[in-house]
Amino acid sequence: MEEEIESRLVFKEGEQWQAECGPFTTFEKLEHEGASLLIQAVDHWHGESQGLVRCFRFLPNWRIDDLMISYSTPQGGVGPHIDNYDVFIIQGLGKRHWRVGEKSELHEFAAHGALKHCESFAAIIDVELEPGDILYIPCGYPHEGYAIEPSLNYSVGFRAPDQNDLLSSFTDYNIDNNATPERYTDRVMQLRERPGQIETQELRELHRVMLANCQTPEALIPWFGKMISEAKHELDIAPVEPALENEEILQLLEDGAQFIRLGGLRAVYFQQAATSLFINGLHFDCTGFKELGHHLCDQDEIGSEVIDLLHENHGALTLFTELVNNGYWYAE
Ligand code: SIN
Ligand code: CO
């Protein structure tokens, strides 16, 4: 019912698939069989649901996308499709029948403006999920699930960017940040007998210019850190007003406050660049207190264990205060 929440209702009218995007004012469709309501990024808005995402912290932060929750009435489902991410589908309420096919080049088409389907496929997994069961579907495997009973499904999705996504994002970053990009010039220009031909050394030089700013994995760090730490779905950010002072943060910690990372907020660092933190698309320097920086990225909550460190290190305390004032970590 709220503007910021990404939601969809999927149902069939006769043989025709229908999909409507929220916000919704009526849920009358869910009074009938064959309907599903899907809500993206629930972990961004609902504190308790973050517990489900935390269970997947054995995988790196940067791969986590969001928690999607769907409710379906019997026969409800979104139809056969292929996702661009890896997903763990957890069965909550009710039973659901899932079919998963082999990874293959299936024809994809719009069954409706907001619903992409793929052609039918032979199942390599054909199961009935019961409450507590988990089905893992890697990126690219066709699947379809239909509720047997009223069903709740919790899907924890993991980003799997493809080559084109990465290159286009890297190029966008360079357009914004590289004011003097290297340009193609002729190293040697000789009289041409075949002006129609692009010569081998010219193609080589084009190739060199194209790759000039991504010669090493480390050259990707500023772009990738910013890009991967940006939230794909809206965050429920509430900056602190009026802003807290360093001493007030320390006092809160000493009074036993636990600071929780905002649901869906992305915080990462690189093994090769340990003093750089990337949080919500911004770069923060943690030279002199990288233990705190890494702790913030690795843990979902922080509390009394950082008091001594914050007392001893003014830079660390100032950074933490800034992050709290931005609304990135909040005290319960
Ligand atoms: C659903 O939960 O209804 C659909 C999940 C999916 O197949 O991606
Ligand atoms: Co899917």
Write structural notes for this entry.
This protein has 332 residues and is of the alpha+beta class. It has 3 domains: 7-158, Cupin (Jelly Rolls, Sandwich); 163-215, no CATH class; 246-331, Malonyl-Coenzyme A Acyl Carrier Protein, domain 2 (3-Layer(aba) Sandwich). 23% of the residues lie in helices and 29% in strands. It is built from 8 helices and 18 strands. The strands form 5 sheets. The protein has a 7-stranded antiparallel beta sheet. A 3-stranded antiparallel beta sheet has the order 9-6-11, with no helix packed on it. Strand 14 and strand 15 (273-279) form a beta hairpin. The longest helix has 15 residues, at 163-177. The chain is flat and about 65 Å long. It starts with 6 loop residues before the first strand and ends with a strand. Succinic acid is lined by residues 36, 38, 70, 72, 77-78, 83, 87, 143, 145, 153, 155.
